[in-house]
Specification:
Blueprint (H helix, E strand, L loop, with lengths): L12 E6 L5 H9 L16 E5 L2 E5 L11 H18 L3 E9 L3 H10 L5 H12 L3 E6 L9 H15 L6 E4 L8 H14 L11
Parallel strand pairs: 1-3, 1-4, 4-5, 5-6
Antiparallel strand pairs: 2-3
The structure holds guanosine-5'-diphosphate (GDP).
The site of guanosine-5'-diphosphate has 18 residues, from helix 1.
Length: 207
């Protein structure tokens, strides 16, 4: 079944995805000036939002992973819905921005791995690499990592992403969305990709 695009257009898609609370809404707001849900309640929003940012459409995928107050069935339903929607749009996806909380990546990765499970960040990154020709990883909340540990944490993230998807060299941008750090680089990289595709630059809110 084809998912309806609520914007009613057929523009190329830029997908923003990440676990709840990684700073996805903050990033989209800095870049587009559009207030998408920014909330303290992890996972409180369920379905994707589309932002028309001519010549592209930004897709804000709801935070996955832990969802407070939601039953396991609801969480599974949400995950299935996200996957179905992304698969049905895959021919239109130009790139995905996958946001991780670099201050928590290692601890969450180790926790999931020690339970014998595939860490959800890595699982989702692998999925995005299957359906999206380009994936930019935004290592957000770098302001929460001690300066002397930043390189180690980024190397760890890069290593795990390479382990998960060996045929793609991860593209990682460090950021602190609340401080607008890394946003210029992210915007620059997106613009470069749009340029390669012969598309105009959108009207970013951030200059
Ligand atoms: P989302 O659930 O991924 O959309 O995350 P939000 O954008 O709603 O952010 C979740 C919380 O993290 C909010 O309290 C934000 O102010 C905070 N936050 C977002 N980005 C950063 C960042 O780069 N550094 C820090 N320290 N906090 C951030």
């Amino acid at each position: 079944m084809k998912e309806q695009d609520p914007t009613g257009n057929n523009k190329p898609l830029i997908v923003f995805a990440g676990r709840s609370n990684v700073g996805k809404s903050s990033t989209i707001r800095v870049l587009t000036g559009k207030k998408v849900r920014v909330g303290k309640r992890p996972g409180s929003t369920r379905w994707e939002q589309m932002i028309d940012l001519d010549p592209v459409t930004i897709v804000d995928i709801p935070g996955f992973g832990f969802m407070s107050g939601q039953s396991k069935t609801t969480i599974e339903e949400t995950k299935d819905h996200i996957i179905e929607s992304l698969e049905s749009w895959s021919s239109r996806i130009l790139l995905s921005v996958f946001i991780v909380d670099i201050s928590l990546f290692r601890v969450l990765f180790e926790r999931w791995s020690s339970r014998g499970e595939v860490p959800v960040d890595v699982e989702f990154y692998s999925f995005l690499c299957e359906i999206s020709p380009r994936v930019i990883v935004l290592a957000n909340k770098v302001d929460k990592v001690k300066k002397r540990h930043i390189d180690d944490e980024v190397d760890y993230l890069k290593f795990q992403l390479r382990e998960a998807v060996s045929d793609r060299e991860p593209t990682i941008i460090l950021s602190a969305a609340v401080k607008k750090q890394g946003m210029r680089e992210l915007k620059g990289l997106i613009d470069e990709i749009l340029d390669e595709e012969g598309l105009e630059k959108p009207q970013w809110a951030f200059t």
